[in-house]
Write a structure and sequence with these properties.
Number of helices: 7
Helix content: 40-55%
Radius of gyration: 20 Å
Distance between the termini: 54 Å
CATH architecture: 3-Layer(aba) Sandwich
Length: about 150
């Protein structure tokens, strides 16, 4: 008798859990998000790794198919892509996010001001990734309905 009751209880808990998981997956609708990075990464690029982890957690919660994410990098934030040239962990995180259709937009003003070459100095940056102004790009994206997040 006890085993029968236990089986029924386990089945009920399983049904309740399945409902909660389905509810969590349906909780979020499609999202457009602009992540803003204009700060140094700190010791061992900890701030950058944390920011990239936040972006991945966001994707995990909402689903890559429901996300349109643009990471806008300017000023001191350019160090993220400079450090990624030599830091395998940063490289891996950036590549993984790009594989999930996250785009990294780099400020042309920052490149010019810091005399940086995307090909030589930055990890995986191409001409189509460069925007005229990081700040103007953030404003432009917000006007297009992107939510602004500074991790």
């Amino acid at each position: 008798m006890f085993r029968k009751v236990l089986k029924i209880m386990v089945a009920c808990i399983g049904l309740m859990t399945t409902g909660l998981i389905a509810e969590a997956g349906e909780r979020y609708s499609k999202q457009k998000v602009a992540y803003h990075i204009n700060y140094l990464g700190g010791k061992d690029d900890k701030a950058y790794l944390g920011a990239l982890r936040n972006i991945q957690n966001h994707i995990n919660a909402v689903g890559a198919e429901n996300m349109e994410i643009k990471v806008v990098i300017h000023g001191n934030g350019i160090s993220l892509l400079q450090s990624a040239k030599a830091n395998d962990k940063l490289q891996s995180n950036v590549a993984n996010l790009k594989a999930q259709n996250v785009s990294f937009n780099v400020c042309a003003n920052t490149l010019k001001g810091k005399k940086l070459s995307p090909e030589k100095d930055l990890y995986d940056v191409f001409e189509e990734d460069i925007v005229p102004s990081g700040v103007a790009e953030l404003s432009h994206l917000q006007m297009q309905g992107y939510t602004y997040i500074k991790p």
